[in-house]
Amino acid sequence: MKKVLICGAGGFIGSHLVKRMKEEGHWVRGVDLKYPEFSATTADDFIIGDLRDQRFCRMIVDQPFDEVYQLAADMGGAGYIFTGANDANIMHNSAAINLNILDACYKRNIKKTFYSSSACVYPEHNQMDPSNPVCTESTAYPANPDSEYGWEKLFSERLYLSYQRNFGMAVCIARFHNIFGPEGTWTGGREKVPAAMCRKVAEAADGGEIEMWGDGNQTRSFLYIDECLDGVRRLMDSQFSGPVNIGSEEMVSINQLARMVMEIANKQLKIRHIPGPEGVRGRCSDNRLIAEKINWRPTKPLREGLEKTYKWIAEEVTKKAKN
Ligand code: NAD
Q1: CA distance 9 to 2
Q2: Domain match, 68 and 31 both
Q3: Fewer CB within 10 Å of terminal CB in the chain, N or C?
Q4: Does ligand 1 come within 6 angstroms of the Cβ of 32?
Q5: Domain of 277?
Q6: 291 lies in a domain?
Q7: Residue 295, domain member (yes or no)
Q8: Ligand 1 pocket, residue 246 CB under 6 Å
Q9: C-beta 8 within 6 A of ligand 1
């Protein structure tokens, strides 16, 4: 049994990771500004507090945990990170969290620390062609991310790697590509595109229409939460530090994604394209490095995860309509 600390344990990926670590039989402390929204935490210990506060970070890293997973960030979907309106908060809050938690881990001799970076680190100029985006790990430099969120992730990757280089800390860094699944944010402005599509389709009457930001020809790949956690766990059990992509190579356009959700819901809807924050034109995980280093690759098609996610969001929509 390991002793594990999960920062961001009230969020989407963090709350699922708590469940996974408990199923594996470990002792887990979760930390977040809030409890998970959609089901009770299964952590042995859950501390509410602000990781921007250095003293709070020292207080929660009060023992030599075997593993620390740092997932806390000020983040959201395109509507949150690409408008420019939240840039100062995104950069300040997430950088402060990483500076504080990593230093607290160093002072407590933490054996291994995981950091969740993002596909948003990749340069905009390599992601202009929707049918041929380049997201090979080594292409992150020369750097030119299209959002401040991406720049903060790059800075923090370098911070973790510096502690590894100078202080001998073991770190693992994954660049997540659009993780989705049940119990993720699905409304309120921070939701990401799979959840937003599921919500729009669930809310629409058959024969009606949904809105979509942009022309829908922009491409992405999406990874189901369980597969993401398989990758994270395998990475942490390996000697490989990364940064490495954890994502799917099944690239779809946003129009195709919307049609897939409509098929799952068995609804015929028109798509009304409206202006909105879109991000880069194309993005897809390149899994060659992770396959070579730790022999991991996703095993399930997008449709399978989308079916589970649609079912959950449709139930949430129904619950909300009744209240
Ligand atoms: P999330 O927003 O659901 O979870 C992040 C959690 O961090 C939230 O619960 C939030 O309350 C917490 N947090 C924020 N500021 C805090 C603070 N000052 N103190 C304590 N807790 C604080 O996001 P997620 O989708 O679970 O993402 C987890 C990590 O993975 C993030 O670092 C994110 O940038 C990264 N990531 C996610 C995706 C994705 O597709 N979900 C893609 C790339 C990278």
Answers
A1: 17
A2: yes
A3: C
A4: yes
A5: 181-221+250-281+301-322
A6: no
A7: no
A8: no
A9: yes
Q: How many domains does the chain have?
A: 2
What pLDDT does 293 receive?
98
- Kindly give the parts of the chain with pLDDT less than 50: none
Ligand 1 centroid distance, CA of 93 (Å): 11
Quote the Cα angle for 118-26-103, to 5°: 50
Ligand 1 atom with least separation from CA of 10: 9
Same domain, 156 and 206: no
Q: Where are the alpha helices (DSSP H) in 125-168?
A: 148-167
CA-to-CA distance for 268 and 46, rounded, in angstroms? 44
- Separation between Cα atoms, residue 119 and residue 117, nearest integer Å: 7
The per-residue pLDDT for range 208-256, each reduced to its tens digit, is: 999 999 999 999 999 999 999 999 999 999 999 999 999 999 999 999 9
205 and 139 within one domain: no
For ligand 1, atom 37, name the residue with the nearest CA.
176
Pocket test for ligand 1, best of 51, 75, 280, 309 (most atoms within 8 A of CB): 75
Domain with residue 41: its CATH number is 3.40.50.720
